[in-house]
Amino acid sequence: MKYHIVTYGCQMNLHESEKIAGVLKEAGYAEAAQGTEDADIIVFNTCCIRENAENHAFGNIGALKKLKRQKKGLLIAVGGCMVQEEGKAQILKEKFPFIDILFGTHDLPALKSLIERKQSERRAVVSVSEARSAVEDGISPVRTSYPNAWVNIVYGCNNFCSYCIVPYVRGRERSRRADDVLAEVSSLVRAGYKEITLLGQNVDSYRDGDVGFSELLDQVAGIEGKFRIRFMTSHPKDFSPALVDVMKRHNNICKHLHLPAQSGNDRILSLMNRRYTRQKYLDEIALLKREIPDCAVTTDLIVAFPTETEAEFCDTLSLVKEADFDSAFMFVYSPRKGTRAAEMEQIPEAVAKERIGRLIALVNANTRKKSAAYVGKTVEILCEDFDAKKGMYLGRDEYGRMGYFKSEKNRVGEFVSLRIREANGISLYGEIE
Length: 433
Ligand code: SAH
Ligand code: SF4
Ligand code: F3S
What we know:
The protein is built from 14 helices and 21 strands. The chain has helices spanning 11-26, 51-62, 65-70, 81-84, 88-95, 111-120, 166-170, 178-190, 213-221, 241-249, 266-271, 278-291, 310-323, 349-372, and strands spanning 2-7, 30-31, 41-46, 75-80, 101-103, 125-127, 148-152, 154-155, 174-175, 195-199, 207-208, 211-212, 228-232, 256-258, 296-303, 327-332, 378-387, 392-396, 402-405, 415-424, 427-432. The strands form six sheets. It has a six-stranded parallel beta sheet with strand order 2-1-3-4-5-6, sandwiched between helices. The longest helix has 24 residues, at 349-372. The structure holds S-adenosyl-L-homocysteine, iron/sulfur cluster and FE3-S4 cluster (F3S).
């Protein structure tokens, strides 16, 4: 019996798909070599952060109707954030009656028993629980991102930014025990993983007794072996000099901070319920750059939040210039049912489109400028994959830049010194030294 998993959304979801694979493996399934073609169970792990994420999933689930008719016994399971959204499981069930199993974000550990239930019952099985009782799920994930390994440290979110659905679909914050995190990282390093990415919707919220995020990071960085550490996501309201100090003290922590600003205007930040000001954000970046001058800073930005004026949007543009971001994820605001911002006065689509275009042009110009400054320098890349189209290996440096190079030998999982010969957009090209 074979499985195929389709994943949407964030790193958290990627890791959760590795856990879904773990549960399926335990249930006797192996990964399908040809995707949907030879799978006996197809699982969609969905995202609902913006409307287009949902539309993608809807389209791809709909496309399976034919396959389901042709192949007797094929199981289709849909899980993740979209299923957890209020009323969505019912809508999915009605729109796609061929779905066999619907499971929410808290129901992943029960997937095996849901499959068994489906096989004995003739109708669709729906399991959407309110909250997960245990923090540890005991699942061994089937990791698919070597040489990187994702490690969850905190689940859920309590922040309730007014635009965001995550707190509703992921539940309240729950931190793992520090001992469990350290044991997992140690065993991953021993198993040969070269990059550990600590995950949480807001890593700064991590707490296990006296151990907050900075202390945890400090302990993780003290684990023996040649590996590097990334973490995401940090929240500007919780930024602490202690975190900068830990980053500065350990050279195995990547000099990269992903710090979502969302907007550069105080009225919008307050409507977003972000609980920091533009000035506080800029002060944080200034402190970070004073302590670690070459630290890369990336961010998330939302344009056309309800009631955003042209002048307020321009404050986001000027923030981009002042903060000098290495790169940014940029989004048009998307109303999410049940969130506070969805009830506010919306911005016309044409205005939103025009604003995102200007923002992308500005951020990308800065990214290109920064890439160009790499030419002639040597950087250390962790090789993560082979790009068959380009015929080149690729990997990132600690700042998060992607570097490409040719090699006769398979270099995946190796740290290589790359002399940069050319910068093209955000990608770097070089030769091994
Ligand atoms: N917990 C992280 C990531 C949240 S989701 C954080 O707090 O930063 C990733 C990004 O999606 C957010 O940072 C935000 O920029 C964007 N986002 C969230 N909800 C959105 C919405 N309704 N419309 C558009 N972008 C949204
Ligand atoms: Fe959403 Fe805000 Fe929580 Fe991030 S911190 S997941 S943006 S509510
Ligand atoms: Fe992630 Fe999307 Fe859920 S961004 S937490 S998969 S809504």
